[in-house]
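Table 4 source record.
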Amino acid sequence: MLIRISIPLLLTTLTCSIFLYNLFFISLAVANEKSYNKSIAKLTGKLKPNLREVIKVLKKRTKGFSRLELTKAANAIIRYSKENDHDPFLLMAVIDIESNFRRCVVSDKGAVGLMQIRPFVARGLARELDIHPDIAANELQDMETNLRIGSYYLAKMKKRFGNLSLALEAYNLGPTRLNMFIRDGVKLKRNYTKRVLRSKKRILMIARNQA
């Protein structure tokens, strides 16, 4: 009788201990995240560049774009930044880090275009954007399609994780992997976020004629 009682009790105690252990590290990760988020708030404040400033950056950073393509890309960056509540300069910084402003580049993992979207991700987001899945997956070298999907995906990560810092890390690592790190109490180095913010500073210098 004693064994029958003690084994379930032991299992219950063990389960509760594991739950509390995970809860502790999740709470710690959230606390660290709040602290980090405050430290980057000044660097990620929204700015409202005009079309001329965005084109100026694109002229400096892109190769082989016609005047019409520069205008089309600049309009898309401003439009989808507004639709998804992004700082346009920050969105350009993500493009810089992801593809170095190369619209047709394909990574060794199959990520495509300016914002390096993988076709299976594009398919998964297509219906939310009212795009046919085949078009979303096969037209990622088209600037308009790529920017529409990429900016939406980043906004979705921001909504899911609650702030820009974690959204950027999720964009880079993938949300499933980031969730695993948070669950396991892994301290994030934020290297991707730091690279994006450094790029944003360079882009601002170009826009303001300081580079």
